[in-house]
Amino acid sequence: MNLASLRIITADIKRLVPFLEKTTNLKATWYTEDFAEIKTSSSTLAIGSTKTLSLFGEGIAQPAHNKSVIIEFRVDNVDDEYERIKDFIKDVVQKPTTMPWGNRSLLFRDPDGNLINFFTPVSAEAIQRFN
User: How many CB atoms lie within 10 A of CB 37?
Assistant: First the structure.
């Protein structure tokens, strides 16, 4: 089994997708006006508007209510990424900090309040874990 993607449901897809494109420096592929994906070499971040929820059933998800999931992107240099995005990120939760498990981490919120972590393994143990 492989994790193929994570999906964010949003009430404002036309705001969220450009924000994610700008922060990740990756271009989204739009399949409909209500569904886009940002693909990386290892997984996909899908973004769906609230209109897509009706395909699964009523009341199954609420946009902008995530309080338990962090979307994580491994980057080459988290400090460089922070410098690149700091002027347009409105909610930086934690500036680049080296965590006890050996990753240097930047934590911020997207416009819907979802937590996003950019991290770079920096300790020998963390680097080995990701190679």
Answer: 16
CB contact at 8 A, 61 and 51 = no
pTM above threshold 0.70: yes
Q: Rounded to whole angstroms, how far apart are CA atoms 96 and 81?
A: 9
Convert the pLDDT of each residue in 33-55 to its tens digit.
999 999 999 999 999 999 988 77
User: 48 and 97: one domain?
Assistant: no
What is the rounded distance in angstroms from the CA atom of residue 120 to the CA atom of residue 96? Answer: 10
Same domain, 38 and 76: no
Q: What is the CATH number of the domain that holds 108?
A: 3.10.180.10
Residue type present at position 25: N
The enclosing H or E element of 128 equals helix 124-129
Could you report the per-residue pLDDT of 89-129, keeping only the tens digit for each?
Answer: 999 999 999 999 999 999 999 999 999 999 999 999 999 99
Domain extent for 110: 66-131
Give the three-state DSSP class for 61: coil
